[in-house]
Fold this protein.
Amino acid sequence: MTNRSTGSDIEIKTAMTPGDLAEVRGLFSEYGADIPRAHCLRGFDDEVAGLSGACGPPAGCLLLMTAAAKRLGAAACGRRHRALRK
């Protein structure tokens, strides 16, 4: 995929290395700092700290999107806690 504004290739990869995880945590922390702490974000900091456990393989994945060595975004997918799935 190519970023139309810069012409650089966009890469989406699974965050696997400690450096990748630090990048994902940094992006999520920036997101959390930019929005008000609404009811839905209770425990957000704890979730960000535990991303590799709750969203790591085999139950989930962490994705990191970059272009021209610049981080653009991240996504976390994982199983929800059994008590939350009602």
About this structure: Residues 26 and 70 are 13 Å apart (CA to CA). The mean pLDDT is 76. The longest strand covers residues 70-77.
